[in-house]
Amino acid sequence: MAGRSARLDHAARAGVEVGANLGYYTVAMARRVGSDGPVTALEANPRLVGLLRRSVDLNAYNGRVRVLDQAAADAPGRLSFVTSRRHSGGGHTRVVESAIGAETEVIDVESVRLDDLGLARADFIRLDAEGSEPLILRGAARLLQNPDIVVCLEWSAIQMQCRASMPEFVGWLAGQGFRFWKIEETAALTPMEAHQMIDLNGCDVVMSRRPVKIRPMRPAY
């Protein structure tokens, strides 16, 4: 995501991440929320969740980051999750039978709604879930009621439409007052109308009810 070279100028107090992978953004979020702000990170791929925990531990953020080996969805239960030995970052919930190839494996994982995690609030949610974002946000309806919440997510209408009606999904978000910005390669934010989101592919998006801005991150070295 474009956040590698930029960060939102947003004073988040509690963060949630779905599709945390190795923990790059988990650590960045933990640093951003400070010592009093919790971060909840979910990673359903068992090959990655151990590395995620190590990233949190090595950066001494165990006290403020909770790591969960679950898949976020719109309902609790079990679901089929597709992982790849070659592309470790491409894990996703299974929706198409023919999408299973020689380098992939289907595993059974626990699913959970973000609203059921016992979180008092969320000020920032980051999603990178290979098309499951509509289901995840449906399961976070209560958390989304925070008027100051900011959501940053990978946006692929092609992947999302396998799991939800894009006009209905975008209409549901817009009906709650969310506005949309596309994150450009330069880290600039381009305002998007709701109808433009229905067919938008291959980019990162910020959603908020209030204007947002991005400022460059300082180098980590």
TrEMBL record:
Occurrences of domain Methyltransferase FkbM (ranges): 17-180
Keyword Ligase included in the entry's annotation: no
Example GO molecular function: methyltransferase activity
Gene3D superfamilies: Vaccinia Virus protein VP39
Entry keyword set: Methyltransferase, Transferase
Gene Ontology BP terms: methylation
Xref: SUPFAM superfamilies: S-adenosyl-L-methionine-dependent methyltransferases
NCBIfam families, per database record: fkbM_fam
Protein name (Swiss-Prot/TrEMBL): FkbM family methyltransferase
